[in-house]
Amino acid sequence: MKTTFKRYINLLLDFIYPRVCVSCEKNILGPENHLCIECLLTIPKTNSHLHPIELLDRKFWGKLNVKQVYSFLKFSKKGKVQNILHTLKYKNKPELAEYIGKMYANDLMSIQFEEKIDLIIGIPLHKDKQKLRGYNQADAFAKGLSEVLKTPYDDESLVRQTFTISQTKTGSRFKRFKNIEGVFEVKNPENIEGRRIALVDDVLTTGSTLEEAGNILLAAGCSELYIITIASAY
Protein backbone atom coordinates (compact mmCIF):
# COMPACT_ATOMS: atom_id res chain seq x y z
CA MET A 1 0.00 0.00 0.00
CA LYS A 2 2.76 2.45 0.95
CA THR A 3 4.67 1.65 -2.25
CA THR A 4 1.56 2.27 -4.37
CA PHE A 5 0.83 5.53 -2.56
CA LYS A 6 4.41 6.70 -3.02
CA ARG A 7 4.22 5.86 -6.74
CA TYR A 8 1.08 8.00 -7.13
CA ILE A 9 2.71 10.87 -5.25
CA ASN A 10 5.76 10.70 -7.53
CA LEU A 11 3.56 10.70 -10.63
CA LEU A 12 1.68 13.72 -9.29
CA LEU A 13 4.94 15.55 -8.62
CA ASP A 14 6.13 14.73 -12.14
CA PHE A 15 2.95 16.30 -13.48
CA ILE A 16 3.31 19.46 -11.36
CA TYR A 17 7.09 19.76 -11.61
CA PRO A 18 8.02 17.88 -14.79
CA ARG A 19 11.48 16.34 -15.01
CA VAL A 20 13.27 16.09 -18.33
CA CYS A 21 15.75 13.63 -19.74
CA VAL A 22 19.22 15.22 -19.77
CA SER A 23 19.93 13.55 -23.09
CA CYS A 24 16.87 14.15 -25.28
CA GLU A 25 15.03 16.70 -23.07
CA LYS A 26 11.72 14.82 -23.19
CA ASN A 27 9.68 14.51 -20.02
CA ILE A 28 10.53 11.54 -17.80
CA LEU A 29 8.10 9.84 -15.47
CA GLY A 30 7.95 7.44 -12.54
CA PRO A 31 11.06 5.33 -12.00
CA GLU A 32 13.08 6.99 -14.77
CA ASN A 33 16.04 8.86 -13.32
CA HIS A 34 17.97 11.55 -15.25
CA LEU A 35 17.66 9.58 -18.51
CA CYS A 36 14.54 8.26 -20.18
CA ILE A 37 14.24 4.56 -21.02
CA GLU A 38 14.68 5.24 -24.74
CA CYS A 39 17.98 7.04 -24.18
CA LEU A 40 19.21 4.39 -21.77
CA LEU A 41 18.69 1.85 -24.54
CA THR A 42 20.05 3.90 -27.46
CA ILE A 43 22.75 6.16 -26.05
CA PRO A 44 26.04 5.43 -27.91
CA LYS A 45 28.45 3.42 -25.76
CA THR A 46 32.05 2.64 -26.66
CA ASN A 47 32.12 -0.81 -24.95
CA SER A 48 35.85 -0.22 -24.52
CA HIS A 49 35.79 -2.39 -21.40
CA LEU A 50 34.96 -5.36 -23.65
CA HIS A 51 36.97 -4.43 -26.75
CA PRO A 52 39.99 -2.08 -26.33
CA ILE A 53 39.82 0.85 -28.75
CA GLU A 54 43.16 1.64 -30.37
CA LEU A 55 42.12 5.22 -31.17
CA LEU A 56 41.76 5.87 -27.43
CA ASP A 57 45.02 4.17 -26.47
CA ARG A 58 46.87 5.95 -29.28
CA LYS A 59 46.23 9.34 -27.66
CA PHE A 60 48.79 8.38 -24.99
CA TRP A 61 51.35 6.37 -26.97
CA GLY A 62 54.85 7.56 -26.11
CA LYS A 63 53.46 10.16 -23.69
CA LEU A 64 51.97 8.29 -20.75
CA ASN A 65 52.50 4.77 -19.44
CA VAL A 66 48.84 3.82 -19.08
CA LYS A 67 47.66 0.21 -18.73
CA GLN A 68 44.23 0.68 -20.33
CA VAL A 69 41.87 3.47 -21.38
CA TYR A 70 38.17 3.00 -20.67
CA SER A 71 35.42 5.36 -21.78
CA PHE A 72 31.70 4.91 -21.23
CA LEU A 73 30.06 6.94 -24.01
CA LYS A 74 30.99 8.03 -27.53
CA PHE A 75 30.87 11.78 -28.03
CA SER A 76 29.60 13.41 -31.20
CA LYS A 77 28.74 17.07 -31.79
CA LYS A 78 25.06 17.93 -31.30
CA GLY A 79 24.41 14.39 -30.12
CA LYS A 80 22.81 13.03 -26.96
CA VAL A 81 26.13 12.66 -25.18
CA GLN A 82 26.99 16.31 -25.77
CA ASN A 83 23.76 17.29 -23.98
CA ILE A 84 24.75 15.16 -20.99
CA LEU A 85 28.26 16.65 -20.82
CA HIS A 86 26.88 20.19 -21.10
CA THR A 87 24.50 19.52 -18.20
CA LEU A 88 27.31 18.09 -16.10
CA LYS A 89 29.64 21.00 -16.77
CA TYR A 90 27.33 23.97 -16.49
CA LYS A 91 24.20 23.02 -14.53
CA ASN A 92 25.65 21.87 -11.20
CA LYS A 93 24.39 18.27 -11.28
CA PRO A 94 26.66 16.17 -9.04
CA GLU A 95 23.90 13.59 -8.66
CA LEU A 96 23.92 13.05 -12.44
CA ALA A 97 27.68 12.49 -12.49
CA GLU A 98 27.37 10.00 -9.62
CA TYR A 99 24.52 8.22 -11.41
CA ILE A 100 26.64 7.86 -14.57
CA GLY A 101 29.55 6.63 -12.47
CA LYS A 102 27.37 3.91 -10.97
CA MET A 103 26.06 2.92 -14.40
CA TYR A 104 29.55 2.52 -15.83
CA ALA A 105 30.83 0.77 -12.71
CA ASN A 106 28.26 -1.97 -13.29
CA ASP A 107 29.71 -2.48 -16.78
CA LEU A 108 33.26 -2.52 -15.40
CA MET A 109 32.34 -5.10 -12.81
CA SER A 110 31.57 -7.52 -15.66
CA ILE A 111 35.32 -7.67 -16.30
CA GLN A 112 36.24 -7.66 -12.56
CA PHE A 113 37.87 -4.27 -12.99
CA GLU A 114 37.60 -3.65 -9.24
CA GLU A 115 40.33 -6.28 -8.77
CA LYS A 116 42.77 -4.27 -10.91
CA ILE A 117 42.79 -1.02 -8.92
CA ASP A 118 43.36 0.22 -5.37
CA LEU A 119 42.29 3.87 -5.69
CA ILE A 120 40.18 6.18 -7.86
CA ILE A 121 41.18 9.82 -8.41
CA GLY A 122 39.30 12.49 -10.35
CA ILE A 123 41.04 15.22 -12.32
CA PRO A 124 40.93 18.15 -9.87
CA LEU A 125 39.66 21.64 -10.59
CA HIS A 126 41.39 24.72 -9.23
CA LYS A 127 39.62 25.79 -6.05
CA ASP A 128 38.49 29.09 -7.60
CA LYS A 129 37.01 27.35 -10.66
CA GLN A 130 35.28 24.82 -8.43
CA LYS A 131 33.67 27.65 -6.47
CA LEU A 132 32.41 29.16 -9.72
CA ARG A 133 31.08 25.85 -11.06
CA GLY A 134 29.73 24.56 -7.73
CA TYR A 135 31.29 21.11 -7.90
CA ASN A 136 33.83 18.97 -9.74
CA GLN A 137 32.08 16.59 -12.13
CA ALA A 138 35.15 14.30 -12.28
CA ASP A 139 35.05 13.86 -8.50
CA ALA A 140 31.30 13.14 -8.56
CA PHE A 141 31.84 10.59 -11.34
CA ALA A 142 34.65 9.04 -9.28
CA LYS A 143 32.36 8.86 -6.25
CA GLY A 144 29.75 6.92 -8.25
CA LEU A 145 32.39 4.51 -9.54
CA SER A 146 33.77 4.09 -6.04
CA GLU A 147 30.41 3.24 -4.48
CA VAL A 148 29.69 0.35 -6.85
CA LEU A 149 33.26 -0.92 -7.32
CA LYS A 150 33.84 -0.78 -3.54
CA THR A 151 37.15 0.96 -4.22
CA PRO A 152 38.13 4.12 -2.30
CA TYR A 153 38.40 7.43 -4.10
CA ASP A 154 40.75 10.24 -3.14
CA ASP A 155 39.89 13.89 -3.81
CA GLU A 156 42.76 15.40 -1.78
CA SER A 157 46.10 13.91 -2.87
CA LEU A 158 46.16 15.31 -6.42
CA VAL A 159 45.69 19.09 -6.52
CA ARG A 160 45.54 21.73 -9.23
CA GLN A 161 47.84 24.63 -8.36
CA THR A 162 47.08 26.98 -11.24
CA PHE A 163 43.86 28.46 -12.58
CA THR A 164 43.86 27.82 -16.34
CA ILE A 165 41.48 28.70 -19.16
CA SER A 166 39.26 25.91 -20.44
CA GLN A 167 41.06 23.38 -22.65
CA THR A 168 38.27 23.74 -25.23
CA LYS A 169 39.41 27.34 -25.83
CA THR A 170 43.11 26.70 -26.40
CA GLY A 171 43.14 25.36 -29.97
CA SER A 172 45.89 22.94 -31.02
CA ARG A 173 47.10 19.96 -29.01
CA PHE A 174 50.44 21.75 -28.37
CA LYS A 175 48.63 24.80 -26.97
CA ARG A 176 46.46 22.53 -24.82
CA PHE A 177 49.56 20.84 -23.42
CA LYS A 178 51.28 24.18 -22.69
CA ASN A 179 48.10 25.44 -21.03
CA ILE A 180 48.09 22.49 -18.62
CA GLU A 181 51.85 22.04 -18.14
CA GLY A 182 52.95 22.04 -14.49
CA VAL A 183 49.52 22.75 -13.00
CA PHE A 184 49.16 19.52 -10.97
CA GLU A 185 50.89 18.50 -7.76
CA VAL A 186 50.71 15.50 -5.45
CA LYS A 187 50.13 16.63 -1.87
CA ASN A 188 50.20 13.23 -0.19
CA PRO A 189 52.66 10.96 -2.02
CA GLU A 190 52.28 8.30 0.66
CA ASN A 191 48.69 7.81 -0.58
CA ILE A 192 49.93 7.30 -4.16
CA GLU A 193 53.08 5.21 -3.82
CA GLY A 194 52.61 1.58 -4.83
CA ARG A 195 48.91 2.06 -5.66
CA ARG A 196 47.13 0.95 -8.82
CA ILE A 197 45.14 4.04 -9.71
CA ALA A 198 42.18 4.79 -11.97
CA LEU A 199 42.41 8.44 -13.04
CA VAL A 200 39.02 9.72 -14.17
CA ASP A 201 37.67 12.74 -16.06
CA ASP A 202 34.50 13.74 -17.85
CA VAL A 203 35.63 13.73 -21.48
CA LEU A 204 38.72 12.57 -23.38
CA THR A 205 39.60 14.68 -26.42
CA THR A 206 43.34 15.23 -27.01
CA GLY A 207 44.27 13.69 -23.64
CA SER A 208 46.55 16.58 -22.61
CA THR A 209 45.05 17.03 -19.12
CA LEU A 210 45.02 13.32 -18.34
CA GLU A 211 48.56 12.97 -19.69
CA GLU A 212 49.91 15.71 -17.42
CA ALA A 213 48.06 14.47 -14.32
CA GLY A 214 48.90 10.83 -15.04
CA ASN A 215 52.61 11.51 -15.31
CA ILE A 216 52.53 13.40 -12.00
CA LEU A 217 50.93 10.36 -10.33
CA LEU A 218 53.47 7.97 -11.88
CA ALA A 219 56.32 10.21 -10.73
CA ALA A 220 54.87 10.05 -7.20
CA GLY A 221 55.06 6.25 -7.22
CA CYS A 222 51.79 5.05 -8.74
CA SER A 223 52.49 1.44 -9.76
CA GLU A 224 49.84 1.09 -12.49
CA LEU A 225 47.67 3.71 -14.12
CA TYR A 226 44.27 3.30 -15.77
CA ILE A 227 42.14 6.02 -17.33
CA ILE A 228 38.35 6.18 -17.18
CA THR A 229 36.20 8.90 -18.74
CA ILE A 230 32.49 9.48 -19.09
CA ALA A 231 32.89 10.09 -22.83
CA SER A 232 35.49 10.21 -25.59
CA ALA A 233 35.76 11.88 -28.97
CA TYR A 234 37.49 9.65 -31.54
Overview features:
alpha/beta, 8 strands
Topology:
Elements: H1 2-16, E1 19-20, E2 27-28, H2 37-42, H3 54-57, E3 68-74, H4 80-90, H5 94-109, E4 119-122, H6 127-133, H7 137-149, E5 158-160, H8 173-180, E6 184-186, E7 196-204, H9 208-219, E8 224-232
Parallel strand pairs: 3-8, 4-7, 7-8
Antiparallel strand pairs: 1-2, 5-6
Helix pairs in contact: 5-7
What does this structure look like?
This protein is of the alpha/beta class. It is built from 9 helices and 8 strands. The chain has a 4-stranded parallel β-sheet, with helices on both faces. A hairpin with a 6-residue loop joins strand 1 (19-20) and strand 2 (27-28). Helix 5 runs parallel beside helix 7 (137-149). The longest helix has 16 residues, at 94-109. The model is unreliable at 8-15 (pLDDT under 50).
Provide the low-confidence segments as ranges. 8-15
Helical proportion?
Answer: 25-40%
Q: How can the largest sheet be summarized?
A: 4 strands, parallel
Total number of strands:
8
Number of helices: 9
The gist of it:
The chain is an alpha/beta fold and 234 residues long. It is built from 9 helices and 8 strands.
